[in-house]
Amino acid sequence: MVLETISRIIKTQLPAYLKKFPLPETVGGFARLTVLEWLRLLPLLGILALLGYLTIRPFLPKKKKQKDSLINLKIQKENPKVVNEIDIEDLKSTNVCYCRCWRSKTFPVCDKSHIKHNELTGDNVGPLILKKKIL
Q: Where is the Iron-binding zinc finger CDGSH type domain (predicted)?
């Protein structure tokens, strides 16, 4: 029953429907179509565009799903990770790491959230490490 309905639509109703369309004989004929004729063509052109997109979609490059975007756009991009060390004489602890990716749950102290951020985005941001200078 379903196949008979589909067969009837394709064999009889679709050709009758397409005969009503103002398809010109030449490419130049499209320039002579009226606004009403263009409006009648829009549903068919929309369906053809959708079918064309669905046909080529598997061949389009896949975009990497990113929840985050790059933070570091130009600083030391040649390095796999940007890390700066600064000697500070008055630090209470030996080493302190400060977050520069803004993802740390213990902000401003680094909790190494930049590692996951760098994997997701291809960024190279790292912590600011302050070291107590030992004399």
A: 81-120
pLDDT per residue over 33-52, tens digit each? 889 888 888 888 899 999 99
pTM: 0.41
Which residues participate in catalysis according to the annotation? 81
**Helix, strand, coil percentages for the chain (3-state, nearest 5):** 45, 15, 40
| Cα–Cα distance measured from residue 30 to residue 93, given in angstroms and rounded to the nearest whole number | 77
Top-confidence residue, 135 or 108: 108
Per-residue buried b or exposed e for 76-90, using 16+ beta carbons within 10 Å of the residue's own CB? eeeeeebbeeeeeee
Token pair, residue 69, equals 């975007």
DSSP E strand boundaries for the chain: 82-88, 95-98, 125-132
**Architecture per CATH, 66-134:** 3-Layer(aba) Sandwich (3.40)
d(CA 5, CA 68): 49
